[in-house]
C-alpha cells in the first residue's frame, strides 16, 4: 500500500506552495519570487506581510491600508491580558504565547469561519497582536505593567516598545524590522508543516497557530535560537572560541550517529535540514549585528560569534543557519535569551497565515505509519496473565 | 531534490510505529497486535492505556498500579479550573480543552523535561485530567458547578460522573469504557501526525497535545462526529432516511470533484482515507448503540442510523467510519452533540501519549514543498509601483 519510506520525510514533497522558494544547494531564499536579501534591505515588514498574503508587493494605497489595519488591531482584548496576568512567572514565553493565542481564539468574532475573508481578518488580528502578547508577557513576568501599543509605528517598532516601554532608536527599529522580514516565512519547516496538517482538517486558524507555536518551541526547531546565545555566553571571550569549538567538534567525532543527533551534542546555529551551504539570511544578520555593536561599542559577543563562525567553517562542513547571528542581534538589542524564539513567532505569524490560506484550498494531509510492532496475537484475560 | 509528489501524502510512509496496525483493505485494527474487537469486548480502557504505553497488557498488580496512578491524578489543578471559569460560555468544548491543556502545561512540574519517565508522568496526568476537563467545561458552560472526580471508578465512569454529577448505570459506564478503548488510538491520523511533527522538534508534551487537540477539531477529522448527529436529527424519522440519502447522494453525483470534496457536501460518517471496507470499530459501536437504546426504549435515532447505513451501502461504495455509530451511542447516553469530539480527545490522549513517547526517539519530520509561485523577479521600491 505504501510508497518508499523516507526517514523524517526528508526530501519528500508534501504540498505544492506558491509562497516561498528555498534552494538549499545554492543558498537562495525568496518570498513570491523576491530574493530575501532584497526584501530585507529594501522593503518593510508590512510590505512583506502584504506580499505573503496577496502574492504581490503592495502599491502605496495598499500599503497604507494594511498598515492601518494592523495598527488598529494591535491592542490586546481584555480577556487575553487578564488571562496572561494569571500565568506563573516562570512559564516559558512560548507557553504564555501558546496559551494567549488559544484564549484570544475563543473571543474572536470570526473564530468559526474558515472563509478567506474571515481568515484574513483573523490573520490581521493575530499578526498585529502576537508581537504585543510577547511584549506584554516579557513585562508581566518581570513584574512590570504591560504597555498599550502605539497607535502609529511599524510592527517591529511596536514590538520593541511593548517590551521596553520606550520608543526605540531608528537603528534598533530598522534592525527589528529586518529581523521580522527574515523570519516571516521559510517554506514548510516543522511549525508550518504541523500547522498545515492541522489546517488540512479544516480546523480554525487559532487552533492551527496554537499548534505552530507549540511546534516552534522545540529545540530542534525555533528553540535552537536560544541555545546559540547560551553557547556564546558560555564561551565568554573571543580568545576561547576556537578551542571551545575544536573540542566540542572533536568530542562529536567520537560519538555514535545516535549520540550526535541529540540536541545537547549539536553545535547550535549550525546545520540545516534543507541548506547545504550557508543560509542566505545569515549574511544579512551578520551585517546587522556588526552595525548594531559598532554603535554600542559592546562587541564581545559579536566577536565570539565571528570566531565560532570561522572555526566551524574550518573544522566542519556544516552550513550556518538563521539562528546563529540572530542570537547575536537579539543580544545586542538587549533581548533576554528565552524571548528569542517568541520573536521568531511574532514574525512568522505572517507566513503561517499565508500557508493556512493556501492549505484551506488543499487536501487532508494523512500519511501512513509502517507497523513494526508485534504480529497478531490472542487476547488473554488479566486473571490469566503472568 | 525531491521524490515523487503524492497529494496529501496519501500512502506515503512518514514514520515507523509499533503501536497500532490498520489494514484498510481488510478492515482490521489492532493495538500492539491485539485485535480492537477483542480489546473492546474483553479489556478495560485502563488495560489498554497500559498496553499502548508499555507494549504489553498489564498483569493484575500492574493494572492496579496504573489505575491507582490515573485515579490519583484526576483532580484538576486549581489554576486550570480558575481559567476555565473565565472562558466565554459559547466557546466550543475543544477550544476550552485546547486552552485548559495549554494552561495546565505551565503548571506541570515536569513541563521542561522530555525524558521518558517525565513524559510518562505527564501522560498519566493528562490522560487522567482531560476527561475531567471535558466534564468540567460541559457543566461550566451550562452554568453548573464542576464536580470533583471520584476517588474510585474507571476513567470512563469518571467522565460520565463529571458531566452529569451522578454515578452512571453499569451499562452506561461499560459503554463509555468501550468508546474510550475504540478511540484510544488510530495510527497516524491527522491529529496524531500533527502531534508527532511537533514532538519531532523535541517540544514538550503539552505543546504537542495542544497541537493534537487543535487538529482534531477540524470537520475533516474528529469534527465529523458532530456532523453525523446533526444529520440524523435533521432526517428526524426512519421513514425519511432512505429518500434523504438518495437525494443527497444524487446531488453529489452531479457535482465537480472539487465541490464533492467540500465538508458540507460529504455524507458525515462515511468514507475514510485508509479504510476501503467498513471500519471494524463501526460494528462494535452499532451493537453498543443497539443495546443502549433497547434499554431506554428510545430507538428513533438508532433506527434512522440503520436506515442511513443500509441506504449508503446500497447507493455508494463508501465504507462506514468510526464516527457514524459513535454519534448514535453519544446521543443514547444523552451527551450534547458538540461534546462528541471532546470525548474522542478524552480517550485519544492515551494514544497521543504513546506516539509522543515513540517519536521522542525518532527524527525531525521535515518534508519539502514544491514551489509553484512566480519565478525570480526584481524588487521595485513602493514609490515606483503602480
How would you classify the helix and strand content of chain A by structural class? mainly alpha
What is the radius of gyration of chain A? 22 Å
Distance between the termini of chain A: 37 Å
CATH topology of the largest domain in chain A: Citrate Synthase, domain 1
Question: From the 3D coordinates, which CATH architecture of the largest domain in chain A would you assign?
Answer: Orthogonal Bundle
- State the helical fraction of chain A: 55-70%
Give the strand order, joined by hyphens, for the main sheet of chain A.
2-3-4
Task: Please state the overall shape of chain A, judged from the principal axes of the Cα atoms.
Answer: globular
Q: Quick one: which chains have the greatest interface?
A: A-B, 117 and 117 residues
What is the oligomeric state here?
homodimer
Q: Summarize the main sheet of chain A.
A: 3 strands, antiparallel
Alpha plus pi helix count of chain A: 17
- Mean pLDDT of chain A, to the nearest integer, reads 94
Q: In terms of per-residue confidence, which ranges of chain A show pLDDT below 50 for 5 or more consecutive residues? A: none
Please tell me the total number of domains of chain A: 2
Number of strands of chain A: 5
Q: Which CATH first-tier class of the largest domain in chain A would you pick?
A: Mainly Alpha
Quick take:
With 386 residues, chain A is mostly helical. Helices cover 57% and strands 5% of the residues of chain A. The first copy, chain A, has 2 domains: 16-217 and 337-359, Citrate Synthase, domain 1 (Orthogonal Bundle); 224-332, Cytochrome P450-Terp, domain 2 (Cytochrome p450-Terp, domain 2).
